[in-house]
Design a protein that fits this description.
Blueprint lengths: L3 E4 L5 H13 L4 E3 L6 H4 L9 E4 L2 E4 L1 H11 L10 H30 L7 H22 L12 H13 L12 H10 L3 H5 L5
Parallel strand pairs: 1-2
Antiparallel strand pairs: 1-3, 3-4
Helix pairs in contact: 1-3, 1-6, 4-5, 4-6, 5-7
The protein binds glutathione (GSH).
């Protein structure tokens, strides 16, 4: 077994973010597909959520902490911009994605559409204009930039992509076509080996 282990089932957007980051960095790892809130997950993450990560006897949870650790602890291409302003923009996007995009697009929309959660029609209805607003904000950047924080993919793109991939699987995914910059960014991301290799199977 590798001394690098990713814990958490691959359908999680956050697990996929870490999978992509490890692949981009060229780190070999073992992936244990534990479901949230199982004894196995609780042993490595007191919240029971996925993902968690270990490197030798060092264990981490919370996706942002894990992603930063991977970038800093291993050789390979940088996953964050070297420029302080671009890094600020990257962190702004990660915070926005975690605080607003994930709750809206995954919790309030995709989980209902995929019947993972019992439908709450009022919440789903409200999520549609909110999703459009979020896509519109992303479009302001992606209409003029290949990636969220400059001309190279960074952790911000790796946080966003798994969410938009899920959005693309439900009827509201058709909204993405109305935002050509976002649409082109998604296609650009889908060419990456890390994105292809991390795709969950259902
Ligand atoms: N703040 C956590 C969020 C992780 C998270 O929400 N994971 C979801 C799957 S994408 C999960 O484990 N959900 C199960 C639950 O909340 O019980 C992180 O950044 O790692």
């Amino acid at each position: 077994m590798s001394d690098v282990i990713l814990y958490g089932f691959p359908i999680s957007t956050y697990v996929r973010t870490i999978h992509i980051a490890l692949h981009e960095k060229g780190v070999k790892f073992d992936h244990l597909h534990h479901a949230p809130n199982t004894d196995e997950m609780l042993a490595v993450n007191p919240t029971g959520k996925v993902p968690a990560f270990s490197h030798g006897d060092f264990t981490l949870y919370e996706t942002l902490a894990i992603a930063n650790y991977i970038d800093e602890a291993f050789e390979g291409p940088a996953l964050k911009p070297s420029d302080a302003k671009q890094r600020g923009i990257m962190n702004q996007w990660i915070s926005y994605i975690n605080a607003y995009v994930f709750p809206t697009m995954i919790h309030d929309l995709v989980l209902f559409r995929l019947e993972i959660m019992p439908l709450n029609q009022a919440v789903l209805d409200a999520a549609i204009p909110t999703t459009k607003g979020q896509l519109s904000l992303l479009e302001e950047t992606l209409a003029n930039s290949d990636y969220l924080a400059g001309d190279t993919a960074t952790l911000a793109d790796y946080f966003l992509y798994p969410i938009l991939a899920f959005l693309g699987m439900v009827p509201e995914g058709s909204l993405i076509a109305d935002y050509p910059g976002v649409n082109a960014w998604k296609a650009r991301m889908e060419e990456k080996k890390s994105v292809i290799e991390s795709a969950p199977t259902f």
